[in-house]
Every structure is written in structure tokens, then in C-alpha cells.
Amino acid sequence: MSNSIVVPIPSSESPRKKTRKDYYSRDVDFNELAKHDDDFAAISKAAKRDGWIDFHDPKVVQQLTKSLLKYDFGLSLTLPDDRLCPPIPVRWNYVRWLQDLLDTTSASFSDIHDPEREVLGLDIGVGASCIYGLLACASRSNWRMAGTDIDAHSLDHAKRNFEANDLQDRIRLKKMKAEEDLIPIDSMGVEEMDFVMTNPPFYSSEKDFLASYNDSGRKATDDKPPSAVCVGAQNEMICEAGDVGFVTRILEQSLVLRERVQWYTAMLSHMHSVQQIVAKLKEKGITNFATTSLHPGNKTKRYALAWSFRDRRPRNDVARHGELIMDVLPASTAKTIHLPLHSTRSLGKKLDEALSALDGIQWEWRPLLDAGIVQCKANVWSRAARRQKMFADRAKPAAESAKDKESSSDEEDEVALAVKITCKNEEAEVRWLRGNDHVLYESFCGMLSRALKK
């Protein structure tokens, strides 16, 4: 296992022919899976005879995982009997959400997948399956993954799994000690990473674990009792303070690394865990975060949370994804301005005229797309800002004003606010792209609404 993860992506690398692209949004259709996989068909046949599928049998759970990976992603998997077997739908939904998170916070402002972008991610606690590395690299040909674990037995099996799927050029593993930093970015020989992910131990003690798995009445709609057997090593399931304690360690390190990682993310077991981490983010002044519910059907519920110290804002349906409660929602990154009786073309013309006349902003209008992007370094539209600029211009010599204009073009990264405005029939959608000040975004939306309604 090499410590370095700076490896080139082979030029011949291409996406696998069989790769799922969408989220799992419902329970697995066992009958459909049985039609395409002989190994699972044998289980399905027995289930029809007995009237149920025994998901408290580890062999059944492992076969479902292997069959889904093969059918939906073209991946193979081997697992030891004494380590966790990952449910594929929830794991894939986490990876799929990460794809959306990165796609909608890229430098291009396109909100779509850029196949040329090289992405590097870290899975903390990779486990024996190496499931996140397999799913991430199988679905995106320009992604590379690093994985860490404190358990040599799990790392050995993880290595076997990525090698069996011919991903040894794009996945690297590193053995860690329990007391070391969770994000070993310096010892891995990289300056920056695109994301960090983890499926942390959910339980704070053996007593906590046993209490959850000894609950009576195993209801599939409950988020406490399991819908299937749980077999794994202690370090996979138990740590001090459970998932909240583990993710808090990542949060504390992120306060040091800050922008060296674009997105710090974690899966969480319960909504109250999400609430606790969101509260900690707010305490630290971190406003750029995103939340999602990962459960694909009526089984066990899981959630994921992401935060960033950079100023690129995810699309609203990504930042607030799935069934969530108000307590954990980040600030909205989208606003719709309703303008009755305006066609798309007339609205676009009015929008272009209004923003072209506004000093102090960078405005790029693309009429063929009925959309444009605004960028600015400060609030230049309020009455106070316009008055301040007028007095400053009067007091400034002409030569100095010309010099300011010339130097401003060299400060492209000094953006306080960037938004994309898309015109549609009778409405304009304002998408927050960059910025750390939600009040500034709301102020711009208010100004724009007034200008378009004149």
C-alpha cells in the first residue's frame, strides 16, 4: 500500500459500459434483480417458496450487495464474514450526491458534469469492501480515491477488491493509527483535495450498539431497529461519542485545513446527529453547507452533511436534498421572481438593459441561453452605495480613476457575489453561485425584482 496518491489517470481510461447514473429512489425490485442475476435468482426462488427473504442471514445480505454491484455497476466484490457488508443503495446515493455537489460548485458555473475535471477524494474508514472508492471510480473515469483505515485486515480485503475491478491505478490506501489526524493530506503528498467522505461508526459504546439491535418490533419504517443483520469489527461500529464525535473530529481538523479541501462530508445515522453537527457548524461561523437524506425507500434512514470554506454555492436542490427538517436546512441558493405577462424574450431584454446600466458589476448576457451571470465585489446597487460612489468619483482625479479601472480587471477572484439569472416565461430564476453573505444575495434579488417590475 503506497502512501502517495499522486498517480496519473491512464489516457485509455474510459467509463464502464454498465454504470448506474441516477439515485436509488425506492426499494430494490428483487424480482427484477433475479431476472438478471442467477445467484440472486436462487435466493428469490427460495423466498417465494418460504414467503419471505431472510435478511438476518449474512449470506443473503452479502449476495444482495454483490448482485446489485454486478447488475447496476459492473463491479465484483468479495467480503470477509467478520466485516461490514455495505447496503448499496444508501452508499450509492451518498456518492451520487457528492457528484452533484461538485458539479454544481465547479469553476465553470455550468451545474453539469465536466468529464475533463480530475477529482481527488478521500474515504475515511474505507473498510473491507472499499465500496466508496469502487462506486466513485466506476461511475466517473476522471475520479481518483484515497482510503484510510486503522484495521490491516480491512485494508487487505479493500486492496483485493479494487485490484479485482482493475482500479489499482486510481485508488490508494493508507493505514492509520486511531490517534492520528483523520485527514492525512500532508503525508499523502497532495496540496488539495476535492472532497472528504466518511461512513463513521454510529455507536458510542457496546451498550449503545446492543440497545439498538435488541429493540423489539423490527419495523422497516423505523430508523432505529435494523432491517438486516449487522456483522462487523468493533472499530467499524463503535467510537467515542458515536458518529457525532467522529464527525466533530473532522470538523475540528477542517478548521485548520480550511480551503485545502473543497467539501468535507459525512454520513450520519439519525436526524438528531445532523442537528448537532449543523449547530456546531453555525457556532464556528460556517455558512456554506448542504444536507441530504439518503434513504432510497422505506428501510433504515441515513443522512449526509457537507460543509465548505470556499464561496461556491451548490444548486438549491443539492444543498437541500431529500426529506429534511427546517433545523438542518442551509440558506436557500435560489429565488424565483414572478413577472406576469412577460415573455421569455421580453423579460431577457428588460433584464439586460437593467443590469447593463448598473455600474460596478460584471454582467455577461447570453441571449441564446436566455441567461446571464452577474459578478460584483460589493453592494453597488443600494442608494447608499451609489451615493458613496458618486462622492468618491467627484473627489478622485481622472488619472487615478483610469488606473482603478485598469487594476480592477486583475482582481477577478475578489468576488463578493456571483449569481446566474435565467429568464423563462413570466418568471426569472436567480441562482446564487458565489459569496459568503446571504444578506447581500437577498439584497441583490430585491433590487432585481424592483427593476424588472418597473
From TrEMBL:
One GO BP annotation of this record: rRNA base methylation
* SUPFAM superfamilies named in the record: S-adenosyl-L-methionine-dependent methyltransferases
Question: Is Methyltransferase included in the keywords of this UniProt record?
Answer: yes
Q: Which domain of life is it from?
A: Eukaryota
Stored Pfam families: Methyltransf_10 (PF05971)
Q: Name one GO cellular component term.
A: nucleus
Q: Which residues bind S-adenosyl-L-methionine?
A: 91, 125, 149, 199
InterPro entries documented for this protein:
METTL16/PsiM, METTL16/RlmF, SAM-dependent_MTases_sf
- Compositional bias of type Low complexity: which residue ranges? 1-13
List keywords of the entry alphabetically.
Methyltransferase, S-adenosyl-L-methionine, Transferase
Q: Which CDD domains match?
A: AdoMet_MTases
Record-listed E.C. numbers: 2.1.1.-
Record field: compositional bias (Basic and acidic residues) = 392-408
Q: What is the similarity comment for this entry?
A: Belongs to the methyltransferase superfamily. METTL16/RlmF family.
- Please give the name of this protein: U6 small nuclear RNA (adenine-(43)-N(6))-methyltransferase
Q: Name the source organism.
A: Cercospora beticola (Sugarbeet leaf spot fungus)
